[in-house]
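Input sequence (198 aa), recorded before submission:
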Amino acid sequence: MAPGLRTTALLAAVAALSLVGCAGGESGAAPAGEAVSGGAGLIPLARLAGIHVDGGLPADVEGPSSVLAELRYGHGRLIAYVQGDSCGIVATPEGEGDAGAVPIRLVAKRPGAGGGSSRLPVGPYNSASVAGGPRTWASLLCGENAMVIEYSSVGEGVPRQVRGPVTVTRTGGRPAVSRIIVGDPAARGLIEERTGTG
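Predicted structure, token format:
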């Protein structure tokens, strides 16, 4: 074998062995995606950087809290926040004051050890839901590393402005529902893979 080819073959063999070692196998490392799906390597919601929102949270939200996301829908908005071991949302639909448009406040605690549902990645989650009149409803899954919100208010279209570590998709059906995933990029990606884009 020519000296140049021998060097190339040797480098290719070293590179191939290095890649095998990085893939997990006997090294004790978890296969790609396995550790992350359980929450390892993710930034907990309580450690994500908060954002400032005009008007802040309602006065009855007592104690230290951090607003993580704000979605503006024309005249309405939805705010997602964390407080201690809880996740919460405050939604003010467009047309507030109409009989069918009622503000929503929803809170769910993170599950304790061995509790909650693991139907989505990076869980477990506790859930809560509420109807804000005949035209508006929301559900909330709260976990240590992510919160997943589904929100529907007749008359609200696609959010015009989205701020914070959040991904928003619209699901089909009538009325359309916004699926809002709050968390670090890796957590949002894993949840989106499972739920699809609508």
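Checked by second reader. The longest strand covers residues 66-73.
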